[in-house]
Amino acid sequence: MKNIRNMDVEWGYEGELGPKHWHTLCDWFSTGAKYPYQSPINLSKNLINGESSSRAIDFCYKTEEFTEKEFKNTFHFVPPNTESYIIFEDEKYYLTDIHFHTPSEHTLDGEHSQLEFHLVHMNNSGDNLVVGCLFSITTDENKFSKNETAMKWKSETHQQWFDPSIFLPEEKSHFHYLGSLTTPPTKGPVHWFVFNTVQKMHHDFFERIHEGMLPFNNRPVQALNGRKIYFSE
């Protein structure tokens, strides 16, 4: 087994480089895979077993600059200045990356959505918090339609300006659980907040960010292993 870091290791979603084999590709991946609460998981109100305490998160997002990047099998929006953040349990988690998976990685009552966006955050201690937003693809007018979106695109420079709140649903009810990253090294713990609303994304917007990407880049659902799942209205 190779003793090298994530940036140097080739991995993917099929064959010998696929999810079943990630833990064999290097020591770092092997260590991450040993964390018992892996992600993604199936989410259902029937599986809620956590105490009915508040799992509220406060979104402090603002319009800021993002750079488009294609990295490790997906498309990313990366904010160079990390001005947006979330507050959870009196701790600030700064938005460091936005990317997507097709189809969704998390399932609701066993069903995949067509698309799942991950808004990745990190606090000053290096702990991760990820917000999952589920979407279906449509040609109906919605907030991602060309005439509706507030995103300012500069295709020639790959720089965009937008408020990341555009990815959030109006209805903020969500699941919360402890899991892992869904890509190598799949380390944990990671606070996961996944909205139970499936939003709509315009087909043209999706095609723009999906062009040239893999047809699928989702890790299979992982075992619960007795972990707590919370739900907040």
From TrEMBL:
SMART domains with a match to the protein in the record: Carb_anhydrase
Record-level Gene Ontology MF annotations: carbonate dehydratase activity; zinc ion binding
This protein's record includes keyword Iron: no
Record-annotated Alpha-carbonic anhydrase domain positions: 9-233
Keyword Lipid metabolism annotated: no
Gene3D superfamilies according to UniProt: Alpha carbonic anhydrase
InterPro entries per the UniProt record, alphabetical: Alpha_CA_prokaryot-like, CA_dom, CA_dom_sf, Carbonic_anhydrase_a-class
EC class of the enzyme, as a word: lyase
Pfam families registered for this protein in UniProt: Carb_anhydrase (PF00194)
Keywords: Lyase, Metal-binding, Zinc
Family named by the database record: Belongs to the alpha-carbonic anhydrase family.
Name of the protein: carbonic anhydrase
